[in-house]
Amino acid sequence: DGGITQSPKYLFRKEGQNVTLSCEQNLNHDAMYWYRQDPGQGLRLIYYSQIVNDFQKGDIAEGYSVSREKKESFPLTVTSAQKNPTAFYLCASSRELGYTEAFFGQGTRLTVV
Amino acid sequence: AQSVSQHNHHVILSEAASLELGCNYSYGGTVNLFWYVQYPGQHLQLLLKYFSGDPLVKGIKGFEAEFIKSKFSFNLRKPSVQWSDTAEYFCAVTISNFGNEKLTFGTGTRLTIIP
Asked: Does an H or E element contain B19, and which?
């Protein structure tokens, strides 16, 4: 089955620790995205990547980092610099940036205690 | 920077009522417009999209949306809702402009259908 896999579904971390969220796609899509979803704020773009070895900051990139070493993978690291990391994180991909439908993973709910 | 506004935060309707959810965007150039839906416990999925051509776009499950360029709007409609339409609905936009095609979402509208 083609799609986007995010793991884990639930993640708990202690304050001050970095944590990496996994996102893998087997759709052969060039573009990938990370969004953060908070109640009443919709989806806010953290980082996006148009192609391998290239990525751009979104609207709320502070405290996050990404890499795009392989076409299939776009991991997101939530660093200790992120002031309010507890949230629902969604990964998406599309055939190309902006012009085509984006497909979403099931999300990772991160809780920092 | 482009932005998307959805003014209805929570809409409650009875089954068979008609639905219209508002969506306005802020960019004056060429845009691509989307409506996504998130059913409880499920992935976000595409409901319909507009790139060009007929401004009245039909999507899945009987939904449609009308692009009105002069009003910067892309409202979602359905003539008769069902209980299974209970979900959160997101409007999104990309700008057709090299280097600025990021997909920007509105804050979402939670739709509750009462049987």
From this structure: strand B19-21
A104 touches chain B (CB under 8 A): yes
Q: Which two tokens stand for residue B38?
A: 């998130």
Instruction: Report CA B69 to chain centroid distance, whole Å.
Output: 15
CA–CA gap between residue B25 and residue A31 (Å, rounded): 23
- The answer to whether the CB atoms of B101 and A58 lie below 8 A apart is no
The size of the A-B interface in CB pairs under 8 A is 59
Amino acid at A77: T
Distance CA A42, CA A46 (A): 13
CA end-to-end distance (rounded Å), chain B: 41
From B1, B43, B51, residue closest to A105, measured CB to CB: B43
The answer to whether A35 faces chain B, any CB pair under 8 Å, is: yes
Peptide bond into A39 cis (omega under 30): no
Alpha carbon distance A67, A74 (integer Å): 6
pLDDT, tens digit (0-9, with 9 covering 90-100), for B43-75: 899 999 998 899 999 999 999 999 999 999 999
